[in-house]
Amino acid sequence: DAEITQSPRHKITETGRQVTLACHQTWNHNNMFWYRQDLGHGLRLIHYSYGVQDTNKGEVSDGYSVSRSNTEDLPLTLESAASSQTSVYFCASSEFSGRSTDTQYFGPGTRLTVL
Amino acid sequence: AQKVTQAQTEISVVEKEDVTLDCVYETRDTTYYLFWYKQPPSGELVFLIRGNSFDEQNEISGRYSWNFQKSTSSFNFTITASQVVDSAVYFCALSDGNSGYALNFGKGTSLLVTP
To answer: Closest approach of chain B CAs to the CA of A18, in angstroms?
Structure first.
């Protein structure tokens, strides 16, 4: 069955280190998204991509980067991890056709702790 | 500016009661989409229902139903005959052209269903 996976599921790192969170989907979806979930804030958009070589900044993109070299993967990189980036990170994917949008389906999440 | 408001932070009901979760949204687009997602204690995000701005229908899917009213910018969600397994955080989300059709989430409503 097609699915969307995230790895690692849990990560502990130190302030200042570079961290990359992986997201892989097998639905062949054009769109991929990264969100973070924090208490009191709900889920907020970090970056998104409409296809290979396309990336866009979301509401809380500072300190994060993404690259899209193929349809299946959208890795999220924290260039220099900060304690404020301790959060649960969700990846999602969806189809996209013209101005319409399909439902986003979410990965299981990655819990990141920055000490 | 917050685009999705879920005024109910926590709701507690007894099993078999009906429960309605409120969602008020804000958008200037004429084409937009509204979603409800469920996040059980295990943490994953599960898609439940979807509404479209061009198809303002109130529908029923099993024990779930929704009331989409553009005149009041509301997209309320009802669970009929609630069950303990319905205990979760429920998120309402808006997708419109202003955010590249990414999801703008409300802060969630925590539903507790007790036996």
So the answer is: 25
Express each pLDDT in A47-78 by its tens digit: 999 889 999 999 999 999 999 999 999 999 99
CB atoms within 10 A of CB B40: 13
| pLDDT tens readout for residues B57-103 | 777 778 999 989 999 999 999 999 999 999 999 999 998 877 777 89
* Rounded Cα distance, B97 and B99, in Å: 5
Please, which residues have CB within 8 angstroms of residue A21's CB and are 6 or more apart in sequence?
Answer: A6, A7, A8, A11, A75, A76, A77, A78, A89, A91, A110, A112
How many angstroms separate the first and last alpha carbons of chain B? 39
- In angstroms, the CA B72 to CA B19 distance is 20
Element containing residue A102 per DSSP (H, E): none
The reply to whether residue B103 touches residue A44, judged by beta carbons under 8 angstroms, is no
Q: Find where tokens 């054009």 sit.
A: A30
| AA identity, residue B104 | N
The candidate with the shortest Cα–Cα distance to B52, out of B25, B79, B13, is B25
What the block records as the tokens of A6 is 């995230």
CB pairs under 8 A between A and B: 57
* CB spacing of A45 vs B35 below 8 angstroms: no
